[in-house]
UniProtKB/TrEMBL annotation:
Organism expressing this protein natively: Parnassius apollo
Biased composition (Basic residues): 357-370
Pfam families reported for this sequence: DDE_1 (PF03184)
GO CC terms of this entry: nucleus
Family matches, as InterPro entries: CenT-Element_Derived, DDE_SF_endonuclease_dom
Family annotation (PANTHER family): POGO TRANSPOSABLE ELEMENT WITH KRAB DOMAIN, TRANSPOSON
GO molecular function: DNA binding
Protein name: (apollo) hypothetical protein
Amino acid sequence: MNKLEVDAYFELLESILTVDDGVLKPSCIFNMDETDLQLNNRPGHVLAEKGTKAVSTVTSTEKGETITVIACCNAESTFLPPACIMKGKNKKPEFEDGMAPGSKLFMSPKSAYITSDLFIEWLKTHFVPRKPAGRVLLLLDGHSTHCNSVEMLEYAKDNDITLLSMPSHTSHYLQPLDRTVFKSLKTHFYEQCRLWLKQNPGRRITRLSFGRLLNKAWGKAASAENAIAGFKATGVHPFNPSAIPDYAFTLELTKQISKSQNECTATVMVEEQEENTINISSANLEPVPNTFEVRQDISPAIAEPNSSVGQIVLNASPEMITRRPKKLFATASAAVIKKMSEQFPPRSDLPDLTPTRLKKIGNKKKSKRR
């Protein structure tokens, strides 16, 4: 996460929470988010004897339909009944069988995911009738369906609802429902699906069974402890920006530091290149024809025992540096190696293990086998 964006978010949150008569009450601080559940179970770990070859578990052969669950709670640990979104046009009463009291089901013809129209409908029919009197704060993630409708913004303003969107890619640390509720909800829901498949062998989970399974999982996940812990872990209530750990920003800081180091390195390299170009241009050297080729006899410095590649390069012409730097260094290295081989001739008592010699030996062995 970006620490600057998170600090700006907490500054804005503090200004919203501050009212004329003190701080906004926890019963007026809400968080709303969605999560998806599949009509299937997720097999967990199986306890078996060490060395067992065949370990089996009950699971469904189908992927399962995806259903979106809209959850909302306040810092006082009060949960609104869940609202669900199913794909389709025709809504049947039996789809809501077994759901928690006050739950609501929305139908979406294109997909089971939330849209701007469904979010406005949720505000009008599900949230506003249950909100306390006066101004309330509704924390949302940065999804486009939560903030791209003018009608929704005007409706929220008319009903004293302050909408605050979190910075992008920060909901895993700043959203209370993501921190403490949704993981528990999915764990209990898929556990109920596993038990259902075990009690009903040969059958698959359908929409008609979803309400009962969700009701059992919701009763365990939507607890007061989870709600209070979520708002506390995110620093919303009690207001505490330092609740976000420092390691949450480590990756972003590392990228910034690495980027600044790369920029500094690039600047130094450019300055060194300009300085070397000036030194080379000031030398009185023989010009090279405009053929983009490198001279074979680079410099008399090769004949000196203490000569180095740096001296060889500095004794070259400017055209050799600016036009063919890679070939220049390769030629210079080859020249140095040639000079060293002349000073230290190969010993006759050692076998010739050069790549060319080894290749010839290998070809001779292949020809003998044939």
